[in-house]
Sequence to fold (257 residues):
Amino acid sequence: MNTEPLMALKSVSRSFGNNLALDNVSLEAYPGEVHCLLGDNGAGKSTLIKTMSGVVNPTEGEIHFGGAAVHFRSPRDAQDLGIGTVHQDVGTIPLISVARNFFLGKEPTKGWGPFMRYDSATANRIAIEQIRSMGIRRISDAEQLVGTMSGGERQALAIARALYFGAKLLILDEPTAALGVKESRIVIELIKSARARGIALVFITHNATHALQVGDRFTVLIQGRVASQFVKGEKTREEVLNLMAGGEEFDSAGHGD
Fold:
């Protein structure tokens, strides 16, 4: 495993009024590894994602990226550093093409000045190349409407887009939550593919089976606190499920193993 984390949260807390959503959370994300963030609804996963991606700032604690402390003024700051976030609904627009979705807001152009126009040939070629690089073979026409793609294929589009535009850390927010078994398998393979490229991944899920299939490091959150942290092979699926349910190990685990 890598020795230096790409991103490290150090004793991060976040309050909203009197509500303590995150309480003294520390975790690390390493290049070429998948850090699974596990927890039930209300565990604090969403607030943690927003903190890592620059949507909200910690009330206490520090975020380090690339070895230096960082302060995000907006999600754009996080994106500029190479932090990409893919949400459960992916954020694609169903009634426009694969290529248009891939380059949304960053369209390649040709010509100059008043003659500048969208370069559809370049956009189509790159979009298909990048999606295929993620192992998706069924999509061959970049003019195809995204609404005709499956859930797994849309995840592939979103992940390929984030990597193409320079993501070093990829935060995946419940990417398998609304998918069936076959589509979930596609997403698990996408995660493995991104890890093989040396990307640091944070995989947020409440599905312990999916997490254990692909995870290298694990953090279990309960009520905004770290119930347990462990690496691959240290806990069984049953132990993980017990932790996520707030089982007896929580009290003894404290703020982490």
User: Anything to note?
Assistant: The first strand starts at residue 7 and ends at 16.
